[in-house]
Each structure stands twice: as structure tokens, then as C-alpha cells.
Amino acid sequence: MIKYKLICQSCKISFDSWFSSSKEFEKLKAKKFLNCHNCNSNKVEKTLMAPRLISNISEKNQIEFKNLKSVKINKKIKEYQKFIKNNFEYVGKNFAYEARTLHYNNKKKERGIYGTASNDEVKELREEGIQAEVIPWINDKTN
Fold first, then answer.
1. Lowest CB count within 10 Å: 11, 63, 77, 143, which one?
2. In the prediction, which pLDDT does 33 show?
3. With contact defined as beta carbons under 8 Å apart, do 102 and 108 qualify?
């Protein structure tokens, strides 16, 4: 299929039309089967057209955009990680125990902690009224 921009030489209106091929357009024009839908004149001609090329550029741009977005998100997560490491105490896999100790033992001074906990442990902490958040963590794999 090919799309042509056509112009009527009588009323000067332009319109688009589809043809199965360029030969089909020429055949219909020779038989005077092409008519202007406005004035019904058969003096219809093709106008200059720029070809529309289909390429994967837009798809490549989308992939590059997604990769750029992913890089920005990872950078922001690493900034949060740096802040947490500098301002909170790492308690490792003892997170749930340490969180409960801080929550229920009023003698200890309040301190921020971070560590590892399962989804079930985090759910239980929240049910007990202990504030705990899950954040994504990116392990540094630099050699």
C-alpha cells in the first residue's frame, strides 16, 4: 500500500488517498477514475511528498531513555544508601531483634538502625507498632 497526497487542479483542495501500488494510481488516473471529492473534477494530480521511512530509531530512543532512567534511579538509591550508612548503625540479620529492643526498652537511647529482615519479620514489626521500612539495596560490585 502507498499513500499519496493529491491535489485537485480545479478547486485546489488537497487530500490523501491510498493505492495498492504506484502503478495502480497511474492506471486509475489514465482511466479517469480519480475524482475530487469536493468538485468531482477528474483533474487530480500527485503533489510532492517526502517519503516516510520506518526505522527502529524510536524504539532505540525508548531503550536508551529506559536505560538512562534506570541509571538515574540506581544513582538515587546509592545516594540514600550512603546517607543510611553514614547516619545509622548496621545490625545485620539481627534487625528485627534490635528494632524490638529499641522499641520496648525505654532505657536505651534512640538510635537509627538498618539491617536485613524477611518480609514476615517486617510485617510482624509493623503489627507491633514498630516503624520499619523496606528499601531497595544495591550491592556494590566494583572490582
1. 143
2. 87
3. yes
